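Reminder to self: tokens first, then the designed residues, so the page reads top to bottom the way the pipeline ran.
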């Protein structure tokens, strides 16, 4: 009997997620062979010894008895009310528990928000570079990601005039990732106000990904987009994964604010989709109230004596010592996005560099082209290892770059 190949959905041809792609698969192979790989490709704090605050673990354990049944499709009330209080502390006063949806991580929330909105061919403005889940989710929901540039020469800040020029009758929303993943850029109030006015003028939904909102360095300040968007709908995405080092809990949320006068059908569609998956992970939701209401331990990690700050400094110093690298210093998040001076090479490709670094020095990074940029001389690495480990990483990088330059 002749068997037929199982055909896949053609929509997947436009989906990329190389953070866990071929390079990560090769790293797993090397680990099975006994090599120790320094994995800097993904922001997973638990792999580097970071712990979820104990108070959050206890809150989850103490409520396990109330976690065995499905909860409301939007999430448990204490978690949603805690998000409301967080928004009010930020100055966003028009959010109620009915405006909050809990999800299995921000990833699911992104999918719900886009699936409820997009028809075939609808466009969403997305930063370049972006966290590729945004582009993938738009494509999987039959939309078209349209990229606005956040160029290195502009310190990875978007240009409002370019954003305005990209709007068409098919544009439904605009995505902001602030603080940015992968660059660590933090946007100013003035810039965000300009983008808010553009969104209001064209009635675009603002999708504001603020998962790293409290992860800031030195004098950087995060301005919640919901404080600036009033005359159109604003969806703020956040969760426990990064600030609270609880990736495995899979708890994220969307808080809707701004003008909801004409958004009733859209909000109902999101609730319908949330109902179809019954509910989000219940045990993890019991940690939300404790997390948002307690002491924010991330401040200790990002202060000058903190581990994240010191590793960030090790990256800055490692780039400074290199013959090949440059860096726009990250002001937030847990990543850096260095550049290789491609003029020093006959030809340079970020994918090739990443594979050489993995094979020869057992360091796993994410090539910059994974983040939907047109250039191929950047790479992303996480700031989660110790400063000592990061210093060693840059020594290994220099060896590989030396070899590649001689080989070219």
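Designed residues (408 positions):
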């Amino acid at each position: 009997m002749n068997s037929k190949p199982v055909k896949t959905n053609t929509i997947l041809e436009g989906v990329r997620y190389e953070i866990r792609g071929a390079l990560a698969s090769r790293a797993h192979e090397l680990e099975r062979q006994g090599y120790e790989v320094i994995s800097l490709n993904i922001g997973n704090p638990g792999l580097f010894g970071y712990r979820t605050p104990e108070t959050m673990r206890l809150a989850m354990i103490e409520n396990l008895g109330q976690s065995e049944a499905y909860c409301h499709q939007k999430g448990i009330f204490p978690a949603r009310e805690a998000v409301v209080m967080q928004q009010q502390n930020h100055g966003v006063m028009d959010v109620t528990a009915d405006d909050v949806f809990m999800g299995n991580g921000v990833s699911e929330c992104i999918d719900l928000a886009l699936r409820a909105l997009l028809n075939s061919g609808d466009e969403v403005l997305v930063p370049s570079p972006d966290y590729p889940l945004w582009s993938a989710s738009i494509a999987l929901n039959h939309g078209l990601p349209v990229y606005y540039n956040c160029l290195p020469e502009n310190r990875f800040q978007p240009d409002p005039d370019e954003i305005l020029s990209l709007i068409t009758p098919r544009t439904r929303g605009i995505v902001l990732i602030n603080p940015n993943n992968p660059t660590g850029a933090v946007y100013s109030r003035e810039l965000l106000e300009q983008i808010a006015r553009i969104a209001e003028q064209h009635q675009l939904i603002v999708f504001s990904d603020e998962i790293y909102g409290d992860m800031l360095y030195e004098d950087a300040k995060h301005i919640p987009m919901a404080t600036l968007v009033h005359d159109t709908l604003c969806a703020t995405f956040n969760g426990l994964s990064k600030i609270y080092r609880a990736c495995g809990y899979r708890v994220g949320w969307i808080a809707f604010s701004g003008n909801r006068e004409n958004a009733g059908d859209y909000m109902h569609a999101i609730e319908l989709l949330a109902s179809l998956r019954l509910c989000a992970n219940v045990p993890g939701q019991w940690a939300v109230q404790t997390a948002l209401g307690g002491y924010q331990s991330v401040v200790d990690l990002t202060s000058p004596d903190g581990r994240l700050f010191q590793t960030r400094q090790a990256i800055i110093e490692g780039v400074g010592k290199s013959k090949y690298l440059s860096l726009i210093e990250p002001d937030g998040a847990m990543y850096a996005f260095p550049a290789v001076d491609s003029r020093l090479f006959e030809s340079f490709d970020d994918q090739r560099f990443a594979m050489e670094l993995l094979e020869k020095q057992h360091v796993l990074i994410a090539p910059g082209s994974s983040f939907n940029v047109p250039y191929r001389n950047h790479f992303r690495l996480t700031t989660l290892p110790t400063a000592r480990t990061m210093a060693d990483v840059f020594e290994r990088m220099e060896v590989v770059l030396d070899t590649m330059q001689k080989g070219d």
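The mean pLDDT is 94.
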